[in-house]
Amino acid sequence: MFLSTFEKQLDSKRRIVVPQEFRAFAQSVPSAVIPASAGFDGVYCFPAFEADCLEAGGPALLDRYAKIMTELDFGDPLRLALETSVLGEMRPLSFDTAGRITLPESLCEMMGLNDWVSIVGLGDRFQIWSRDAFQAHRTAQREAARDGLAALRTQQRAAQQASRGSGS
Questions:
Q1: pLDDT for 122-162, tens place per residue?
Q2: Rounded to two decimals, what is the model's pTM?
Q3: Residue 112 lies inside a defined structural domain of this protein
Q4: What residues make up the domain containing 24?
Q5: How far apart are CA 123 and CA 143, in angstroms?
Q6: Could you give the CA distance from residue 19 to residue 99 in angstroms, rounded to a whole number?
Q7: CATH code of 62's domain
């Protein structure tokens, strides 16, 4: 899994070192769409849907989106939107010998990536954020998680009380 958060500095060529753990995981999950013989050593990257950051991952991430798209009928507006947003915007980014990827200038401009970035593991994918934007996002997500867990616990207690009440 892609785990943890790392801060990295973009160099003058927009390169960042992808953490070793991320590089290993990206290549470890086999792909149903991309043949192993393709020999691609890198990650796939595109603008994220839920936030102003980049989403990235190995071939398994591409598989995940491809599966969703192929379950929709050809010509379905959602399928076209996903194909345009994922496949049309996706960039395969190869690792160099130092484990770096070079972020396309257009994506850096779109997401405000120009100096320090945060690379955030999200299990089966990771995101690349402007460091400042991620700090604000992390604060908001911690509050949402705290509130969501409190609401979930309240629902669970109510369900337990209801099941005890109906069992008597």
A1: 999 999 999 999 999 999 999 999 999 999 999 999 999 99
A2: 0.86
A3: yes
A4: 5-131
A5: 20
A6: 8
A7: 3.40.1550.20
